[in-house]
Amino acid sequence: MTSKPIVLVFLLLVLIITSQFEWRQQIEADGNSVVSPKNKLTSEKEETVKEKVILSQERSIQQLNDLVQSLQLQLLHCRGNNNTILSSQNATSDEIPEVDDHDSIRD
Predict the structure, then answer these.
(1) How far is Cα of residue 59 from the mean position of the Cα atoms in its chain?
(2) Where is this region: Disordered (predicted)?
(3) Of 53, 77, 55, 57, nearest to 65 (Cα)?
(4) Average pLDDT over residues 71-85
(5) Which of 35, 64, 30 is nearest to 47 (CA)?
């Protein structure tokens, strides 16, 4: 019986302590949100630099995508040429045994 009140008191203490901790974090966050003009100018410069870096990276990504597309087209072209060469070699190799067969028939 006495364990229930003790548990309730303990939970109440935990609740009070955690709520005090959360309030302190909010107060500290509100205090940090006040920015001096110098810090504001610095943060604006940082944002500008970040935007320039992002734009540069986007241009690089676009160039890489274009290069990948070009290489894929070259690969398809090479595969087409390779298939043409292989099919012409197969046709030539198919003709050669036929000639050999005709020669062996004559013997």
Answers:
(1) 16
(2) 85-107
(3) 57
(4) 86
(5) 35
Whole-angstrom distance, CA of residue 55 vs CA of residue 30: 33
Average pLDDT over residues 41-69: 91
Q: Are 43 and 35 in contact (CB under 8 A)?
A: yes
Its domain, for residue 76, covers: 50-88
Q: Is 9 inside a domain boundary?
A: no
Residue 26: inside a domain, yes or no? no
The CA distance from 63 to 71, in Å, is 12
Any domain includes 72: yes
40 belongs to a structural domain: no
13: pLDDT strictly greater than 90: no
Please state the domain count of the chain.
1
d(CA 70, CA 22): 56
Match 């109440």 to its residue by tokens. Answer: 12
The radius of gyration of the chain's CA atoms, rounded to the nearest angstrom, is 39
